[in-house]
Amino acid sequence: MKLSFFGADQCVTGSCHCLEVNGKRLLVDCGLQQGRDELDNSDLPFAANTIDCVLVTHAHIDHSGRIPMLVRQGFKGRILTTRLTAQLLEIMLSDSAHIQEADAEYQSKKNQRAGRGPVQPIYTMADAMQVMDLIDTCEYDQTVKLWDGVTAAFTDAGHLLGSASITIEAEENGERRTIVFSGDIGNGNQPIIREPVLLKKADYVVMESTYGDRNHTEVWSYTAELAQVIDRTLRRGGTVVIPAFAVGRTQEVLYFIRRMKQENLVKSVPDFPVYIDSPLASKATAIFSGDLTGYLDDEAMELVNTHQGMFTFPGLHITESLDESKLLNTDRTPKVLLSASGMCDAGRIRHHLKHNLWRPECTVVFVGYQGEGTLGRSLLEGVPSVHLFGEEIAVRAEIVNFKGLSSHADRDHLLEWAQSFEKPKHIFVVHGDREVAPYFAESLCKLGLSAHAPQYTEEVDLITGKITQIGYLPERKPAPDRTGTKISSAYQRLVAMGKLLQSVIERSKGRANRDLGNFADQIKMLIDKWEK
Q: Is residue 270 assigned to a domain?
């Protein structure tokens, strides 16, 4: 019985873990690498035709985006996931395939002009459609037999509609082991979906650590806070641009806007228009409005049962065509504009940033995690300008980061989730940045739990608990230069130390006031010395 780590190992994207039992192999997730995590999405560290089954925790592309490539390379087995995840996968994998084909076509044209050969997409729309032919679905808490000696059960992870943690019961040569894969663990008190289920029984746990080094900023009311941002932007005649993941985050923001309109929280332009400029988001919103029995929290179910609609309100517009999308940037009417991708590295959002970043009356509101090396992260870090479509665009718009608005559990909630288990043999910490996953594993050890952050291609014998193959940390791509100016390694190190300092400050909440005051004085002395 062997567990291998093939993705999201001391990085945040590309989740992929392999469990081998009784001579058969299953994958838990097979996601795309993104941002600085991307090595080579076309290269799998195993033969696709050696995999017998794939279990999918949820539909986000960093957990599912390489499944069509798996099929393209020879996988013909069973894909098991929840009913709602299967519905979301159909639209998300098709959209991802469209992007792969478009990127390959663009690069091929560039290569042709340079006298080089064409580029093939890592998968196509046809490959994405083949995935759907292999999918079986289940409901939460249903035990499903995978093969002799191996069963799986999905429980609500509270991260995305249909998202799940997966408990695998495996028996080999008379030895039984329970292995839990957390998937992405949801944040508490989110709208629409339910709270993550706390599990108790496991010999081994593979858990995420995206926010393992920090807590979310406390926000008393997302609706009121967002309404204030929208109100002041519309009052000065600007556009509120919200880069939002098309599945999950867009629907949450619409949920908040419906409430703020209902409560008349935006005084400057009470009937302000809201545009969803993402074909994928509009398809996802339709799924979020379908049969959601067993997937929603009580408040959202009440809206569904009373036919009020979670995402319908006056002034909502959905743009489909590219021509409609372009018109949004020629119309200076104050408005709210939601578009994908959430990290600003692809899609229509980049065009909207080009036309609005330089306008001081506008606001760009980030409502989700921004991976290292992405355009979104660069904007949050305060770059003075960015390059988009061959132009240098000054950043004069207000930049707002809703840190508390996250679909991921923060440090305290991750610790709570891990401590709910009754003394597991070991916890494998994955799906966290290179500086974060080991730190969170160390935090678990301080609580008396056995834990470590595995490296890429590491293998563990789950009968003996011993590492049978040591992994490695692949060299990451350098952070892309968004400004056109060279960033020194010394400056990058300084920025990294600044983030670490911020993390330490956030973890200091609740310590003695005297200690906090001394720490603040030391920081001020250092700043004063530096600025002299």
A: yes
Of 152, 45, 65, 15, nearest in space to 430 by CA: 15
Domain closes at, from 401, 425, 445: 401
Given phi > 0 = left and psi -120 to 50 = alpha, else beta, which region is 371?
beta
Segments in the chain below pLDDT 50: 483-487, 489
Residue with tokens 């393992």: 212
Q: Is residue 112 part of a domain?
A: yes
Would residue 107 count as lying in a domain? yes
pLDDT tens, position by position, 20-73: 999 999 999 999 987 666 667 778 899 999 999 999 999 999 999 999 999 999
**What sign does the CA torsion over 399, 404, 408, 413 have?**
positive
Chain-centroid distance of CA 445 in Å reads 26
- CA pair distance 351, 365, nearest whole angstrom: 16
pLDDT on residue 219: 58
CB 370 within 8 A of CB 380: yes
pTM here is: 0.80
Are the beta carbons of 412 and 378 closer than 8 angstroms?
Answer: no
Map residue 12 onto helix, strand or coil: coil
What is the DSSP code string of 498-529?
HHHHHHHHHHTTTS-HHHHHHHHHHHHHHHHH
Q: What token pair was written down for 74?
A: 């020879």
Residues with Cβ within 8 Å of 323's Cβ and at least 6 positions away in sequence, in order, are none
Query: What pLDDT sits at residue 342?
Result: 81
Does residue 324 contact residue 352 with C-beta atoms inside 8 Å? no
Closest CA to 245 of 28, 118, 91: 91
